[in-house]
Amino acid sequence: MNAFEALGLNEQLVKAVTDLGFEKPSEIQEKAIPVLLSGTTDFIGLAQTGTGKTAAFGLPLIQLIDGAQRHPQALIVCPTRELCLQITNDLEKFTKHTKGVYTEAVYGGASIMMQIRNLKRGVHIIIATPGRFWDLYKKGTIITKQIKYFVIDEADRMMDMGFMPQVNQILEIVPRKRQNMLFSATMPDHVKKLSEDFLEFPMEVEVTPQSTPAE
Ligand code: AMP
């Protein structure tokens, strides 16, 4: 059996990662994927870029999405436009063989009209920087009522860049019953406090940069 299949991923996702040349799961993927596929357990991943963390949360999210329901079910917040585009790009590659799961990157410094148009078509996964998220939410373009999965990526950078008030506000407008995932390269006290505030009985996994697939 393929090692990704053994973690519980479906055939379409296994095919997508095989196309990308992934031979075996990285450490964070091995530990996170089976837990996140439950759709209910909260998760903290202490992992830097390069560890394969995007696939660790992205692959289970894609499998959990109900494509027939054309509204946002997963929200990923991240600190920068670059990271937002990188995550979106990765998720699009992972959905190569999964029909009918749509993603949209929402970030500042780009045409808001284009993002509005794409959101109106109906998307399942939104990858957003906090400022542009709020602009679109206030316009009524992003509906959060059906969000079931919430991810904070690079939580330490989010906090360093002063995004926490906006993230806390986002947490107030997504349904209470949801699966939360927090990824961070480091775990200073303020990130620990954030994780205690919004994660419930999370599974915590720490991986060292040496275990990166990219290396
Ligand atoms: P990330 O930590 O998510 O930024 O991923 C770092 C890089 O590793 C990206 O270019 C991924 O495409 C690649 N990658 C992720 N998982 C694997 C894997 N299991 N095998 C090989 N490469 C991978």
Structure description:
The chain has helices spanning 3-6, 11-19, 27-36, 53-64, 81-94, 112-121, 130-138, 155-160, 164-173, 189-198, and strands at residues 43-46, 74-77, 103-106, 125-128, 149-152, 179-184, 203-206. The longest helix is centred in the middle third of the chain and has 14 residues, at 81-94. Strands 3-4-2-5-6-1-7 form a seven-stranded parallel β-sheet, with helices on both faces. Helix 3 (27-36) runs parallel beside helix 4 and helix 4 packs across helix 5 (81-94). It is of the alpha/beta class and 215 residues long. It is built from ten helices and seven strands. The two termini are 25 Å apart. Bound molecules: adenosine monophosphate (AMP). Adenosine monophosphate (AMP) binds next to helix 4.
In short:
The chain is built from 10 helices and 7 strands. The protein is α/β, with parallel strands linked by helices and 215 residues long.
The hetero compounds bound to this protein are: adenosine monophosphate
Extract low-pLDDT stretches: none
Strand order of the largest sheet: 3-4-2-5-6-1-7
Mean pLDDT: 95
Binned, the helix content reads: 40-55%
Radius of gyration: 16 Å
**Intertermini distance:** 25 Å
Strand segment tally:
7
Please render the helix and strand layout as text.
Elements: H1 3-6, H2 11-19, H3 27-36, E1 43-46, H4 53-64, E2 74-77, H5 81-94, E3 103-106, H6 112-121, E4 125-128, H7 130-138, E5 149-152, H8 155-160, H9 164-173, E6 179-184, H10 189-198, E7 203-206
Adenosine monophosphate binds at residues 22, 25-26, 29, 49-55, 213-214.
